[in-house]
UniProtKB/TrEMBL annotation:
GO terms for molecular function: transaldolase activity. Its EC number is 2.2.1.2. This is transaldolase. It comes from the Eukaryota. GO terms for cellular component: cytoplasm. Pathway: Carbohydrate degradation; pentose phosphate pathway; D-glyceraldehyde 3-phosphate and beta-D-fructose 6-phosphate from D-ribose 5-phosphate and D-xylulose 5-phosphate (non-oxidative stage): step 2/3. CDD domains: Transaldolase_TalAB (cd00957). Keywords: Cytoplasm, Pentose shunt, Schiff base. Pfam families: TAL_FSA. It comes from Panicum hallii var. hallii.
């Protein structure tokens, strides 16, 4: 999978590789916002007010931001006023009243003109920055490569890993100065099966961010949803450190993550659909298909119902959105990561002012009371039950995603090895 996002609009929030047909890379959400939502789990409470700009078209590296119009916010609050006859209302206005929209792209022009609300820093973003001749973020990487603590390490692999960690924190700290919301930091996928390794790396990053005066409430850590990653999430959340579990392709992973208290769980709707088109033999997917349901959408609905049935704090994010119908089918979910072409189509589609409020959420907390779960699904998940329940789709997609992330991290370290030492060091 993974071709690193170079800074041009592209779909990215980096994610995966495959044995069969490679899934589309994961989104690195970027800014596309008009106004901040009235509330957002990605924005600290003290930073949830303000106006932002419409559709950004080019330039500085950033990711993970939310779009919601003032009209949508009023509609979501249930107090939208009657529309003037000449009011132009787009489908994007209508759908943004029910879910926060996360644009899937990786490039921005200028923070003053196109202000993103939050950001994600990852290996793919570092590759993109390193490929630019002139960007303020380049100095953050040069500073990491000049770090004395890293330089003192004897083993080349330890040095490169140290540079990678420092570079992520340096770039993330720069982004924290540019956005009002949280900065999400990718955790090295090579630690995916090492609970203590994940926790240690997160603590290292928290300390580095604190040295840059970035407080913990501004941070989110993106961890693969292996059992070890879920257990790391549980322990980190108990310390007040917010986590974002990714590579979730099964109900068991999502339920275990919610039980662990993960702040955000990300499901890849389109990738599950793609897998189902070319494979069979996964009980969870086969059950959805028997009911005439789309495998990815069915999983999102089931997980949403589970979270609300049990009152978990976890927010649910849908990624790998393939078309506008996916957006309509997911209305009500906390976050939807959608490609720019879909958002532009929604923005260009004008709805009748009298029709816009007929858009209704497909996912509401009430479904938690009516959704039928089996006794096996309502257990307290542990490593053995998770492994037994994941199924071939989740196993394959998780493995391919991890492979892609690992390859990206290695590419960054190889690049750092070639350009070290930086100028003036």
């Amino acid at each position: 999978m993974l071709s690193p996002p170079i800074l041009l609009s592209c779909s990215v929030v980096p994610l995966p590789i495959f044995t069969h047909s490679p899934p589309a890379p994961i989104p690195t959400p970027m800014a596309l916002s008009i106004s901040t939502p009235t509330s957002s789990s990605l924005l600290p409470a003290s930073r949830q007010a303000g106006r932002w700009s419409p559709l950004a078209r080019s330039a500085k590296p950033v990711s993970f931001s939310l779009w919601r119009s003032p009209l949508a916010a009023r509609s979501a609050a249930g107090n939208a006023p009657a529309s003037p006859v000449d009011e132009v209302v787009t489908e994007l206005d209508a759908v943004a009243g029910f879910s926060e929209i996360v644009p899937d792209t990786v490039v921005f022009d200028d923070f003053e003109r196109f202000a993103p609300t939050a950001a994600t820093v990852s290996s793919s973003l570092l590759l993109g920055i390193s490929g630019l001749p002139d960007t303020k973020f380049k100095s953050a990487i040069d500073t990491a490569l000049a770090d004395g603590e890293c330089n003192a390490l004897e083993k080349p692999e330890d040095r490169m890993s140290c540079y990678l960690t420092k570079a992520l924190a340096n770039v993330g700290a720069e982004l924290a100065q540019q956005v009002p919301g949280r900065v999400s930091t990718e955790i090295d996928a090579r630690l995916a099966y090492d609970t203590q390794g994940i926790i240690q790396r997160v603590h290292e990053l928290v300390n580095l961010y604190n040295q840059h005066d970035v407080s913990s409430d501004r941070l989110l850590f993106k961890i693969p949803a292996t059992w070890q990653g879920i257990e790391a999430s549980r322990l980190l959340e108990s310390e007040g450190i917010q986590t974002h579990l990714t590579f979730v392709y099964s109900f068991a992973q999502a339920a275990a993550a919610a039980q662990a208290g993960a702040s955000v769980v990300q499901i890849f709707v389109g990738r599950l659909r793609d897998w189902a088109r070319n494979h069979s033999g996964d009980p969870e997917i086969d059950e959805a298909l028997k009911k005439g349901e789309d495998a990815g959408l069915a999983l999102a609905k089931k997980v949403y119902a589970y979270i609300h049935r049990n009152g978990y704090k976890t927010k649910l994010m849908a990624a790998a959105i393939r078309n506008k119908q996916d957006v309509f089918s997911l209305l009500g979910i906390d976050y939807i990561i959608a490609p720019l072409k879909i958002l532009q189509s929604l923005e260009e589609s004008v709805t009748d002012p009298d029709v816009k409020y007929s858009y209704v959420p497909r996912l509401t907390p009430a479904i938690g009371k009516t959704y039928e779960f089996t006794e096996e699904e309502l257990v307290k998940w542990d490593q053995l039950s998770l492994a037994a329940a994941m199924g071939p789709a989740a196993e394959e997609l998780l493995a391919s995603g991890l492979e892609g992330y690992v390859n990206q991290a290695r590419r960054v370290e190889e690049l750092f090895g070639k350009i070290w030492p930086p100028p003036n060091v």
